[in-house]
Prior knowledge:
By secondary structure, the chain is an all-alpha fold.
Amino acid sequence: MTTDLRPVLFMLVSTLCLSLNGLIAKLLSDSFSTEVLGLLRFLLPALLMLAILKVTRWTVPDRKDWPTIFVRSICVVGSQMCFLIALDRLSLVESVVLFSTGPLFIPLLEKLLLKTCIQPLTLFNLALTFAGVLIQAGNSGGMVIRPELLIGLAAGLFNACSQVTLFKGSKSNLPAAALNGWCFLIAALIISPLALSNITNQGYVISYTESSSQPAFILPLVVFLTVSIVSTQMCRAKAYRLADSGSQLAPLIFTNLIFAVAWQICFFDHQLEWNTIVGIGLIVLATLCNTFIPKWLPISKNVKAYR
Length: 307
């Protein structure tokens, strides 16, 4: 049995920083448009990681590494944009829960890409997840499928694609700063036309409203957001590199939910309705079942065999 706790520690730091990403993005969502905030979330971390790479050891990806980096860039753009749109319309906890459904979609991706069989447990967990989404959609006027819930699920789907490509890329010879720095730079180039078009149409970059952050806090929050994103990506890449498999660290991904609940209580006066709590509970149950039952069943069978 391995006693190396470094992958676990790196993953916990990564999820803590990821929860801070969501918190700061929520605080800045009233000051920046979704497109501009998305550009900042890609461009500034890319510049910081490439600067770190320049100081340590400048590395340009090989030809065989570029397809993985490019595909991950597209997945990161899709994931972050869907997450920001959901975050602008939902509570922090709701957005994080939907974003964290990524591991549930990994078996579907394996089915499409590798032609593997989908287990009945996976279908059950997906059904449980969509049941949770439907319950969240309920209100006093009846069941209404809110687009932001589906957008949040799309963020989870793109997140799954991003994690698959990150795990593959982490096994290459690229340093974490190179793997993520080049990826985020390409992502920034992809989203920049949307951001520039939004700035041109609106005529401003930062909006000041009663609900937006105080002007004095915007720059420190942007800096803190950049540092937390870089910490998230580099710690996660390091954790994957030290781990034997991605599933080894999968349970730790959901500590992000615990941190998000803490931030929700501390920073936002937003009461969750009963149907939202039940819906979130079903989604969390589905993700936990997806993670632990496949590990528990072989152990249970071995115990019975020895009796």
